[in-house]
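Priority: low. Protein: Auxin influx carrier family protein. Input follows.
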Amino acid sequence: MATDKVVESVMVGSYEEMETEGKQKSVKSKLSSFFWHGGSVYDAWFSCASNQVAQVLLTLPYSFSQLGMLSGILFQLFYGLLGSWTAYLISVLYVEYRTRKEREKVDFRNHVIQWFEVLDGLLGKHWRNVGLGFNCTFLLFGSVIQLIACASNIYYINDNLDKRTWTYIFGACCATTVFIPSFHNYRIWSFIGLVMTTYTAWYLSIAAVLHGQVEGVKHSGPTKLVLYFTGATNILYTFGGHAVTVEIMHAMWKPQKFKAIYLLATLYVLTLTLPSASAMYWAFGDMLLDHSNAFALLPRTRFRDMAVILMLIHQACFITFGFACTPLYFVWEKAIGMHECKSLCKRAAARLPVVVPIWFLAIIFPFFGPINSAVGSLLVSFTVYIIPALAHMFTFKSAAARENAVEQPPRFVGRWVGSYTINIFVVVWVLLVGFGFGGWASMTNFIRQIDTFGLFTKCYQCPPQSMVPPPPQFHSPVNATVAAPPLHHLPQNHTHRA
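Result:
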């Protein structure tokens, strides 16, 4: 029986190799395969690493100012480990589901398996409905956050337009992701995306060190519980990017090899997030409490402009926005019966309605930074941590299910007893700290942003126009004014800290 399990597990996801076996490839098909059609473990690693951290790089220094240096570092390590564990659980459940279906001769060549379908096949329709609701809502707001980040970033290069206008423009740019068929086609974009985030992270680290500490810098955090748990839930959100784990696995030729990919991706991401957030907090301290975008505090140079442009490309041009939105496209295609359509243009046209609510929500709630914490506490806590842990426990609750499982828990965690212990800890911790305290803190902070700036605010945390001196009057020497100071030296609208 053990041998049969191994054979069936190996056969999972081998369609691509079976289809191309024995066929001669033309130069065009080889180029297409090299740049476009990926399914290796390396593609999966690039996808996980580039998707896990993008605009969050710019908000983690803000979280450090709320948490303090020590708590910021510890929470990153802790939630990175927790996120890797639940990503492993999702991969186990995917392989279990797909193996069972393929034993029944179900063919997935033209169908992308998604998380809610895994829950449906293993645990029933009630789990499916809960998983579908949380996952789609999280991915919806995840896409909204990327769009908000685009407008926030471009403003630091060109402030001739307000952030709301930039949101309109980048909403149209992000809509081009409808032409990406599936996660098979993110090979080159995932690689480029990781190069972009790596540059940005090390730019933040080096620029902060070279800038040095600002005069009178203070490192007060943590000062209040609201700020502390708001910062913690932003880090919870940072390492909760595996809401698209199932889709990434399905794009692999051999998805059973996914196991440790997310952990390795997380370890690499930590080499980016820890130095950049620590250096920025060391240099600017409490000033970050009023600047949720780290770019706002660094002087404008060609290196900063390059980092801004790379982040814009990463977020708007297929990569981060596409990763968050493509699973929503699949759900919508299945709902309207277009998922197995061969025409790329028809599928792209059918996907466009998904972009409209994302566009609209980004205009309503442009609160860059605080929205990350709200999404993290209310949605990521269940989608990425609680539901996978519970689903794993309920799927293998019977002795027969554990005995016949396609993949047994690793020995170093204590097999089934150890995995159940870890799962219970994950559920209790995230429910109390992430959803409970984190939900209270992040929503309190989020509501205060609404009270301070209002919905549909035109330019969130932009320098107030009243601070810009009027143009000089030439008819009288008395009325002459000096030139306006550089934009980054002007005071910014302050958010409430308590």
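Residues 1-11, 15-23, 471-498 have pLDDT under 50 and may be disordered. The chain has 19 helices and no strands.
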